[in-house]
Amino acid sequence: MEDNEIIELYWRRSEQAIQESGSKYGSYCLSIANNILSNLQDSEECVNSTWLNARNAIPPQRPNRLSAFFAKITRNLSSTKAPASDVSQDANVQNNNSGMVGGYCISDQNKNSVTVPKANYELDFDKDGTISSADYKLSGMSQDDFASKLVSNGNVGTASEAKQVIKGDITVMCGVFSGTRN
């Protein structure tokens, strides 16, 4: 089945959309998840969650490349499921949950720091598991209000990092940075 037909199934809220997604992209998404998690059961859970997240995001979204859309969701879900001990033994851990460090986290690209995610999807307007400049555009908020909300929700640590999200320099996954820090 062609991608545009699968997208149309999602728009019609057809259960067949998930079946067709799994048939066409299931092994692709499973390989992405398993490369991150190295655990088949956890990887399968992430792939199943990918289809649910896609169903929640389409509509209103209409992805141009379905493979990239599914890959991004799978990668984000897998990254937030990866145990902290698998990321880096000598990383500087920042706890955004005001409690004991633990649970799931990922690091920045240089593995210089690890952030324990604070699950707060309030600003995830496009429902893709990340907070990005696309969410800012969908929010209808001013830059200052969106930046302030990012910081107060614990999605980023500083106003400067919030501005980087708005500009599209970084993307936040449940409070975790993906990109380069200035």
What does this structure look like?
The chain has helices at residues 3-11, 16-37, 40-57, 66-81, 133-139, 143-152, 159-167; strands at residues 92-95, 106-107, 113-116, 170-173, 176-179. A 3-stranded mixed beta sheet has the order 1-3-2, with no helix packed on it. It has a two-stranded antiparallel sheet with strand order 4-5. The chain has 2 domains: 3-81, Rna Polymerase Sigma Factor, Chain: A, CATH 1.10.1740; 84-179, no CATH class. With 182 residues, it is mainly alpha-helical. The chain starts with a helix and ends with a strand. The chain is 50% helix and 10% strand.
Question: How are the elements arranged and paired?
Answer:
Elements: H1 3-11, H2 16-37, H3 40-57, H4 66-81, E1 92-95, E2 106-107, E3 113-116, H5 133-139, H6 143-152, H7 159-167, E4 170-173, E5 176-179
Parallel strand pairs: 1-3
Antiparallel strand pairs: 2-3, 4-5
Helix pairs in contact: 1-2, 2-3, 2-4, 3-4, 6-7
How are the strands of the biggest sheet laid out side by side?
A: 1-3-2
Q: Which class do the helix and strand fractions yield?
A: mainly alpha
Shape: globular
Ends distance = 43 Å
Q: What is the typical, i.e. mean, pLDDT?
A: 74
Rg for CA atoms:
17 Å
**Count of DSSP strands:** 5
Number of domains: 2
Helix proportion: 40-55%
**What is the helix tally?**
7
What's the SSE pattern? Answer: HHHHEEEHHHEE
Summarize the structure.
By secondary structure, this protein is mainly alpha-helical.
